[in-house]
Fold this sequence. Notes:
The chain crosses the membrane at residues 12-29. The protein has 366 residues and is mostly helical.
Amino acid sequence: MLNRCRFSSTLFTWIILGILFQYQFYHRLCRIVQQIFSKQLGYLAMELLLAYIFSVFQRIDEALSDHLHCEELISPLFIVAKILVKRCEPKKQLKSVVVALVLVGYKCIREAMTELSFSTANDFVKCTTPLMKNLIDDSAGQGNNGSHLRAILGTCLNVIADLIKDCIKGIHLLENKRPDLLKLLQLKLSFSIEQMVLFAKLVYESQYCRQTEDSNTICLAVLKYCTKYIQTVLNDSNVQVQAIGLQALKTMTQRSANIEDISFFTFFSGELITEIFHIIHNSLKKPVSKESVAIAGECLRFLVLLQTLSKANECQRGFMNLLLKAIVMIFSASEDDSSQEVSDIRTNAVRLVSSLCSNSFISSLL
């Protein structure tokens, strides 16, 4: 028995060393991890691996000359990390492990200096979403006072909020400068917005919110916090920031795969209608630019999307009324402006309404 333990310990040591130093053989490592790791060793391996991943991103930040070597290292490390994430059984996972996974993922997103390293870290964060969902759902069956979950959600949301603020600040500073860094900041901002919406969706759909007054208070606080930061993005003075926010919302809404998804995005978007109308209003201020035309068009298309996806008749009528109000606003505010940009906004509005009416007519015949 003692020899077997020594053998297991030695084997584990060599696997970790392989992860840390022999990353060029990561395909082989993946098979070893899948076949040999027990649950307990998996958690220990995850702890060591996450620490090393973080140190790699730190190295990228501190020594740009070592970029190529680190870029080659990041991908296989995250591949192994994703395998270990899948080894974490939802019923046995430790809350601290889940939080560590999420926060390290966020830190790696922040530290990413290239689109490749950002993309790799983003893929890893997506793997942690089911774990966070399980953590919230498990709180429903534990019957605790929610203080632990409140702390976990608060920590994660604060990290995302800080990233949103830093990205917006960076976009303002880099406007028309350093297009490579600007693109990376835009990707990070889009990621942060999606994470905010995702947390709002997780608590909105969780049974935990419906259990007690305390749990309901926690979930309402999360929804309010997430809404606040999406509103911050949409209210920003920079048109690029606004466009990123709208695009992220529209993309996530378009991915709605079931009634529950549609219900959430209908609810969440309803909290942002004031900001959408504010964007349309500002886009009509003279002089109207091409960027203003584009952002106004995005607002109208988002309203059309919400009206189209809405299943309840009351919601459909509500979004149709909002869309018509937006179009009336466009024509009323621009009636004394004959510029090409204003003409483009009007044309886009008419096309969207015509398309929507045509689709509604066809649907009524089917």
